[in-house]
Structures are given as C-alpha cells and as structure tokens.
Model the fold of this input.
Amino acid sequence: ITELAAHTFSALINLSFLDLSGNQLALIHPEALSIPGSPLQELDLSCSLFNFTALTDLATALRWGGLWGLLRLDLSGNRLALLPPGMFSHVPSLQQLLLSNNSLVAVYSGTFSGMDHLETLDLTHNAFGTFRNDALQELERLGNVRILLGDNPYTCSCEIREFVTWLNDSRAQ
Done:
C-alpha cells in the first residue's frame, strides 16, 4: 500500500486495531484515519512510512483523525530522524508510543506535549548520542512514564554529564 485516501476506514465503525505495518506509505490524506466514533485503539505503522512527507502527512492525519481513543501507536522501523513538535498532542489517550529502530538523534521541546496518559515510550535502537538539557526537561514533563533508551550509540564526553545525572535520578531504562 502506498497511499491512504480520505475516509479509507470510515465504514469500519468497530475497527479497534489497524495493522498497516510493512507498507510503503508515501501519501496519507489528512482524513484517512477518520472513523465515526473514533473506535481505533491500536495503530501499527511500523516499517511503513516511505519518506518524510509520509511522516508529516501522518502528523496531519493524527490531528484531523479524531483518534481520541488511540492507546497504542507503533512507528518503529521507519528511519525517522526527527518528530514534528506536538505531533502526538491530538491523541491524548495514547498510553504506548513505540519509536524503536529509527534514526532519531534528538528530542525537541514540544515533541511529546499533551501526552498526559502515556505509560511507555520506547526510544531504543535509535541514533541518540546524548540528550541535551531541554530534551531531558521534555522527557521529565512526561511524568511517571517508562522510558526505554537502550541500544543507542551514546557518546562519552563532558556533554553527557547532565544525561547521566538525569538517568540516575529517573526511571529511564
């Protein structure tokens, strides 16, 4: 599948789990994920975003889709280098966000804003060398969230000192 048109799933009013993994989505219409009553609870888009345009399209679809009941979003394995600020703010019920096996190098202010119900954030197997102070503050704002940070190519330098202190004081794994 390379494209998701508007209202692709709107007739599936009982759809609670949608697995679109392993596709090459290049175009996602802003209303592609709109389903009356927003029954969708799990969305698997792992290994399926073809390019950065698909990511920005997804951010718009999350904003317009009315996915208030979405609990789990899997974006692992998509070669993502960055996440648009506020991308997840329109999925307020999200409990699990899986971002492993991407190419993320930084967390920016506002990336995870509005995620008040998040329980698990998986950032394993990315390209993080360290986390700057503003990134640590962004992660700290998430509150009592299980943050998985293993298997990243951390750099041993003086810049990592704040990150190590934060790790020792937090629940990150």
User: Anything to note?
Assistant: Residues 1-173 form a domain with the Leucine-rich repeat, LRR (right-handed beta-alpha superhelix) fold (CATH 3.80.10.10).
